[in-house]
């Protein structure tokens, strides 16, 4: 295949790659690393690592509580991370940006506080929560726990054969009894980009709140929390070239103000007496204890890095690589891609099956050639079950991925076929 | 902070107000009473507002706090009592603007009078809330008093 | 004061200080940093920072799920962090060590799962939860939320005038109705070391579970989770020279196995179907989503660093510094120490009042001399209320603190008195 | 992993067993049936154990999994069927010891026979669970079958 002509690639791809120290690594006894597992976690540019190191070596202190010079510097750096994330999301107010430990906690925060809310938000007996069969486990299990514990009912959108949400029964699912509609913006398994604004509109017609899992969208698409129409949008730091240990929950102010606290503790209070406590305003109400300080500082540097390159440019790059990969993968005999086959309809994660070889074995052979992919259920068992498979192999690209790396994957798959002596 | 910044924070006007605490104590009558807390450090103020028509007849308060927050309550009451709500507004706005300006806003002494002394506090993230506490309480009390009179 | 003779100081204090890059910093226009806010958060040695950087630059990948070389390296490093923490705590099993985002989440995890537990563990109407007036807000608010939400009753031990737990009414507090007894091992405000084994014994007599907040103990004392007699012990990474974004919950296996899950999501499941899910065994059951990977790696390096110096030696150092500080502080006119006056009965955090100067103003003047202390309620409002004060100034030392730094504090307090023209 | 490690992982014995899957399929009679899952990757096995007195008369199974986990089930059943529980124990122990030994344990071919081929998997953290899945299921089934017969 000729790769030089690929339209949409980031213009200075080699410069970008040089920002990521891990890409210089060799694996498997001297082979260059071909990292195609970015939907699992992204690699970190030097600027994120350096910003964190500078914070730890020169400005480390606890935030909010400390009056001294280091405390002021640390607080400013931490809250600066919040400002950067608010800008990245186009959030109307920085106070609407809450730091959690990951996307999973953010989703649980919403599910939990809806169980304890007073008034119309409370999810209880007879209420309906709607999710989809395409979700990551982190957007299924919290709602199962909520509905099991409160006596509400969990319903879900199915998936069509070509990997889109099946909206045929939307009127039945989104009804007067529906309190919450939650869905993923981009599927981490099928790659599908969902029509979130349309679903949000329908949900709002019945007064339901809309929770959007942007864990796979935030790394790849320009995210505008207002335009997308959701009430809550979550994503996770480690997938947007930031560190682990931090996630983000954006919520509409009015909603967040009505929700009761989630975790109790330091920083989330207004006043504490043994007999009872009152709580701080947002965002602090939802940030009990010492927050992920150096992580917020790192995340701020991460979203700045992405914004500097431009989310539109990154999205174009992902689409170009994805199109190229879809084309290449389909040249491999016995390979079936799960999910949409048109790159314009999807994100950069591509799951596939290779006839006659279990995904673990595929991944293992690829690993021996330096190609890192994920094998398994990718925390999306129901979506796998929907397609009658128990696991799959997934390649996922990011802004540092080159067409040559896709070639290495395709070659590796051919090698896998011959290694396992498939005809 | 450096020691010259210390002196610009603790200007004589501030130390003086912190000691004298003008208009301190809770008095009757009042249309609204509010209680504000700085959750970070625990500083508290209970503030009462007494309006007569459009005129701020009295602002009385009881506070527990540092010299910055005490002085700020004292200066505010001195500036605002006797003014109309409309006259108070630009002063209030100017104070907020100065405090939130991270030391970048050049305060107008004609408007702010003694309150200009808080320019030093505006440069210290940790102290901004101290200086703002009673001003935010006044604003809240005003909203409530006006709601009250609308009923 | 002559400081050279101080018995118990760490022998190679200058070498230890050289491990902490931030201690070379100057503040306040060129003055050396005197960091006396370690009970708020500790500084980080180079080895912790370097270990994190090496992970991010060379081994970063998601854990458990990834089959490739980086995934295996990252998983090994992450689980190695768990092994190190288990060893640090003398935990019977590494599976009993659960990573949370901080100590606050760990405490909330216990309080929340007790609300949803089935069988005798469940806390409901009529049950009693016992805490103390000496707790950090993070060990009060979760239990307030639990008891308010379930109809249980919250009771608490008071504090004696000399800053100890008032155990006079222990028989009334710990009764047949008591389901949980939770307390801090070392107070973050008063410094008091509590008789945890004795209280645990009493609680176990009535079948209550014992939750120990070791957030201030773990940095300072050798912690042995078995010997202390508790069922659950929590602490937080950033106070033991580790990073933010990670906390630890140790729990007895039988207890953890009986508790229902807390957060739902990836990694904590056994299998997920839309109709319902089953959960993984401990520790994973309680670790939903991508865990704090680089943070666990850093925490592993942190506890290794402390163990290498020796927790006994660190404890002796803290006691020597604390004794020296108690002595020095009491030379300052108008200064009153809150809490025990005997260093042997306490940890290294010393809160005090200075007559006629508000703690903020004390801290501000000290900061202008490079001395970093904390002013406020230290997330212990009830303990302050007990002593009729709204806030205090707190100095807190750690393994890198020198007697000369205590001298700088005492000098700074004298200067504060003169600055505010106290007679 | 390097390519020679790949070959030591996918030894012919393993690929052969993965293809032939000896004793696969679920059969009657049985005293215990268990279902085990590897939560990380989703591999599953349903395993039935049929004892006659002390003798392992049959181990039947249905599994979904990679070549390592399929081969492991196949090898295990071949090794254990027909043995007494007591005779099976040292084999089971030796297999667990090898798999948990991080490649440091020198396996005894006299005891493990074909199962020695999993020494390559023992070096790969991610594959250890694949190889252990059916062995853990057998152990669980044994406990249940014995509880059953105690009643
Ligand atoms: C005694 C005590 N418990 C709990 C905490 C809470 O720790 P974190 O803020 O890391 O959750 C702290 C520290 O802030 C503490 O000192
Ligand atoms: C779509 C989606 N949602 C949620 C998550 C959970 O993110 P985290 O594991 O960081 O909580 C992930 C990634 O694992 C994801 O891909």
TrEMBL record, chains A, C:
Keywords: Lyase, Pyridoxal phosphate, Transferase. One of its GO terms (biological process) is cysteine metabolic process. It catalyses: (sulfur carrier)-H + L-cysteine = (sulfur carrier)-SH + L-alanine. Its cofactor is pyridoxal 5'-phosphate. InterPro entries: Aminotrans_V_dom, Cys_dSase_SufS, PyrdxlP-dep_Trfase, PyrdxlP-dep_Trfase_major, PyrdxlP-dep_Trfase_small. The keyword Lyase applies. It holds the Pfam family Aminotran_5. It comes from the Bacteria. Its EC number is 2.8.1.7. Residues 34-409 form the Aminotransferase class V domain. GO terms for molecular function: cysteine desulfurase activity; lyase activity; pyridoxal phosphate binding. It is an enzyme of class 2 (transferase). NCBIfam families: sufS (TIGR01979). PANTHER family: CYSTEINE DESULFURASE (PTHR43586), CYSTEINE DESULFURASE 1, CHLOROPLASTIC (PTHR43586:SF8). Belongs to the class-V pyridoxal-phosphate-dependent aminotransferase family. Csd subfamily. This is cysteine desulfurase. It comes from Nocardioides soli.
UniProtKB/TrEMBL annotation, chains B, D:
Pfam families: NifU_N. InterPro entries: NIF_FeS_clus_asmbl_NifU_N. GO terms for molecular function: iron ion binding; iron-sulfur cluster binding. Coiled coil: none annotated. It comes from the Bacteria. CDD domains: IscU_like. SUPFAM superfamilies: SufE/NifU. GO terms for biological process: iron-sulfur cluster assembly. Residues 10-130 form the NIF system FeS cluster assembly NifU N-terminal domain. PANTHER family: IRON-SULFUR CLUSTER ASSEMBLY ENZYME NIFU HOMOLOG. Belongs to the NifU family. NCBIfam families: SUF_scaf_2. This is Nitrogen fixation NifU-like protein. It comes from Nocardioides soli. The lineage of its organism: Bacteria, Bacillati, Actinomycetota, Actinomycetes, Propionibacteriales.
């Amino acid at each position: 295949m000729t790769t030089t002509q690929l339209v949409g690639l980031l213009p200075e791809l080699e410069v970008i790659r040089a920002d990521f120290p891990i890409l210089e690594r060799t694996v498997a006894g001297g082979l260059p690393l071909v990292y195609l597992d970015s939907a699992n976690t992204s690699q970190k540019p030097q600027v994120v690592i350096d910003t964190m190191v500078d914070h730890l070596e020169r400005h480390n202190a606890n935030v909010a509580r400390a009056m001294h010079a280091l405390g002021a510097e640390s607080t400013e750096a931490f809250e600066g991370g919040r400002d950067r994330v608010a800008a990245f999301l186009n959030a109307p107010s920085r106070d609407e940006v809450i730091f959690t430990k990951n996307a999973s906690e953010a989703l649980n925060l919403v599910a939990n506080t809806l169980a304890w809310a007073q008034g119309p938000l409370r999810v209880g007996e007879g209420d309906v929560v709607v999710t989809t069969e395409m979700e990551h486990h982190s957007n299924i299990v919290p709602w199962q726990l909520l509905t099991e514990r409160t006596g509400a009912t969990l319903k879900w959108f199915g998936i069509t054969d070509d990997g889109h949400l099946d909206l045929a029964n939307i009127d039945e699912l989104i009804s007067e009894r529906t309190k919450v509609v939650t869905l993923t913006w981009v599927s981490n398994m099928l790659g599908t980009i969902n029509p979130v604004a349309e679903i949000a509109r329908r949900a709002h017609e019945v007064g339901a709140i809309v929770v959007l899992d942007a864990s796979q969208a935030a790394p790849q698409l320009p995210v505008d929390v207002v335009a997308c129409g959701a009430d809550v949008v979550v994503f996770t730091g480690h997938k947007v070239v930031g560190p682990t240990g931090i996630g983000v929950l954006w919520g509409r102010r009015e909603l967040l103000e009505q929700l009761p606290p989630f975790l109790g503790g330091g920083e989330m209070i207004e006043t504490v007496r043994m007999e009872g406590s009152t709580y701080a305003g947002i965002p602090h109400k939802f940030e009990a204890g010492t927050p992920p300080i150096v992580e917020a500082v790192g995340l701020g540097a991460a979203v700045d890095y992405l914004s500097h390159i431009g989310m539109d440019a990154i999205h174009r790059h992902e689409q170009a690589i994805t199109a190229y990969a879809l084309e290449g993968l389909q040249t491999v005999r016995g390979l079936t891609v799960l999910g949409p086959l048109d790159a314009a309809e999807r994100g950069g994660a591509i799951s596939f099956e290779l006839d006659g070889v279990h995904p673990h074995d595929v991944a293992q052979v690829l690993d021996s050639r330096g190609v890192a992919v994920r094998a398994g259920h990718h925390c999306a068992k129901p979506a796998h079950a929907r397609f009658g498979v128990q696991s799959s192999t997934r390649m996922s690209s990011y802004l540092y991925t080159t067409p040559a790396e896709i070639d290495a994957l395709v070659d590796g798959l051919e090698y896998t076929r011959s290694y396992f002596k498939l005809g | 902070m450096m020691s010259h910044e210390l002196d610009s924070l603790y200007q004589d006007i501030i130390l003086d107000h912190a000691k004298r605490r003008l208009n301190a104590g809770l008095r009757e009558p009042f249309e609204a009473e509010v209680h504000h807390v700085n959750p970070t450090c625990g500083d508290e103020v209970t503030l009462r507002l007494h309006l007569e028509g459009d005129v701020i007849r009295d602002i009385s308060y009881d506070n527990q706090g540092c010299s910055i927050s005490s002085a700020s309550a004292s200066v505010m009451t001195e500036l605002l009592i006797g003014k109309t709500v409309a006259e108070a507004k630009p002063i209030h706005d100017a104070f907020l603007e100065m405090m939130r300006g991270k030391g970048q806003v050049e305060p107008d002494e004609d408007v702010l009078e003694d309150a200009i002394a808080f320019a030093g506090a505006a440069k210290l993230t940790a102290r901004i809330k101290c200086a703002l506490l009673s001003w935010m309480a006044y604003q809240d009390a005003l909203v409530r008093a006006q709601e009250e009179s609308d009923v």
